[in-house]
């Protein structure tokens, strides 16, 4: 498993991360198997959020491995805050109480990384700055970042916070490529030329922020998985052919496609199937050629100008 440095920090982690959004309903035994399979395959970065399963995902995670100091040191734990029932909340009070809740449920005294989950337009940057400083000083959070934010939002935050923002978690997959499409279609009048994210790909590269690609197997907004899906025959034919050539599964190719991009991606996979986790980990040993990468992009229905 290749390791990457997360943003401008000293934190190194597996280039594939396990997202725990779907862990809430797992039994202790099943969750234990999932976590240990990830660790055995070199995946040591675990993504959480206070809202996953209403907090249950974090609880199941810690219980599954009987969280203790020895195992804690083997993993990098990230959580997210800011989404509440029907609104977003970046107030100092909420950020701090959310982290305290996550720490309690995860049975740890620190988070390696905390991300602000979704932009709260009512946010006061001074409050976020005060929350980050308090959390850093108390040792409860070591690194900070954002999720689903554009360059303008990040710059605004950076004007106030003292801490480096090391990661931005964004939806990205073979079937969700808006941040790439724009660059291929500069100054054109077709839909893919629309810049929907303020040039986040180039901004992240220029500022050395790691893009954490969430939902790497989904199309639309949780509409389903594109792999082995009859709706996408051409794409699956192409992926399956390349998977057979490389001796890995189609899931591994979908992740290798993301990791092939030089923009320092970290792919956050959400499968709770240990066999799939082991298969996906093999993506780290696959490097797609430029031709293969573009072939998959075109097979997904994208046209190059
Ligand atoms: N920042 C944000 O706003 C945000 C939003 C959403 C998610 N996330 C993070 O991203 C993580 C991943 O999200 P996700 O779970 O939606 O992404 P995903 O990895 O694209 O999807 C995983 C889901 O697809 C299913 N699946 C079916 N066939 C599959 C195959 N061949 N290969 C892999 N999975 C297959 C899995 O089922 P099985 O379990 O049966 O394999 C699982 O239910 C989450 O856990 C969370 O940490 C962040």
UniProtKB/TrEMBL annotation:
<keyword id="KW-0521">NADP</keyword>
<dbReference type="InterPro" id="IPR036812">
    <property type="entry name" value="NAD(P)_OxRdtase_dom_sf"/>
</dbReference>
<dbReference type="InterPro" id="IPR020471">
    <property type="entry name" value="AKR"/>
</dbReference>
<feature type="domain" description="NADP-dependent oxidoreductase">
    <location>
        <begin position="15"/>
        <end position="296"/>
    </location>
</feature>
<dbReference type="GO" id="GO:0016491">
    <property type="term" value="F:oxidoreductase activity"/>
</dbReference>
<keyword id="KW-0560">Oxidoreductase</keyword>
<protein>
    <submittedName>
        <fullName>Aldo/keto reductase family oxidoreductase</fullName>
        <ecNumber>1.-.-.-</ecNumber>
    </submittedName>
</protein>
<dbReference type="GO" id="GO:0005829">
    <property type="term" value="C:cytosol"/>
</dbReference>
<dbReference type="Pfam" id="PF00248">
    <property type="entry name" value="Aldo_ket_red"/>
</dbReference>
<comment type="similarity">
    <text>Belongs to the aldo/keto reductase family. Aldo/keto reductase 2 subfamily.</text>
</comment>
<dbReference type="InterPro" id="IPR050523">
    <property type="entry name" value="AKR_Detox_Biosynth"/>
</dbReference>
<dbReference type="InterPro" id="IPR023210">
    <property type="entry name" value="NADP_OxRdtase_dom"/>
</dbReference>
């Amino acid at each position: 498993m290749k390791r990457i440095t997360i943003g401008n920090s000293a934190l190194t982690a597996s280039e594939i991360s396990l997202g725990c959004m779907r862990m809430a309903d797992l039994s202790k035994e099943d969750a234990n198997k999932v976590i240990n399979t990830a660790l055995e395959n070199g995946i040591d970065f675990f993504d959480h959020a206070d809202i996953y399963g209403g907090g249950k995902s974090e609880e199941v995670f810690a219980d599954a491995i009987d969280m203790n100091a020895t195992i804690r040191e083997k993993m990098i734990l990230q959580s997210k805050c800011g989404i509440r029932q029907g609104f977003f909340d970046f107030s100092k009070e909420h950020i701090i109480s959310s982290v305290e809740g996550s720490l309690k449920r995860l049975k740890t005294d620190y988070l390696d990384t905390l991300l602000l989950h979704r932009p709260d337009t009512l946010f006061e940057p001074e409050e976020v700055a005060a929350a980050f400083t308090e959390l850093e000083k108390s040792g409860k959070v070591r690194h900070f970042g954002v999720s689903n934010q554009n360059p303008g939002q990040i710059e605004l935050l950076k004007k106030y916070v003292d801490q480096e923002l090391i990661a931005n978690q964004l939806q990205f997959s073979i079937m969700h490529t808006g941040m790439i499409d724009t660059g291929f279609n500069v100054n054109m009048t077709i839909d893919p030329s629309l810049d929907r994210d303020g040039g986040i790909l180039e901004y992240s590269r220029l500022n050395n922020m790691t893009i954490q690609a969430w939902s790497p197997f989904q199309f639309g907004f949780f509409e389903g998985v594109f792999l082995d899906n009859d709706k996408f025959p051409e794409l699956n034919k192409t992926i399956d052919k390349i998977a057979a050539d490389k001796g890995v599964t189609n899931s591994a190719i979908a992740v290798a496609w993301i990791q092939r991009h030089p923009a320092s991606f970290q792919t956050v996979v959400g499968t709770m199937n240990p066999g799939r986790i082991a298969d996906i980990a093999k993506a780290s040993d696959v490097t797609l050629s430029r031709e293969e990468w573009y072939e998959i992009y075109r097979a997904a229905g994208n046209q190059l100008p």
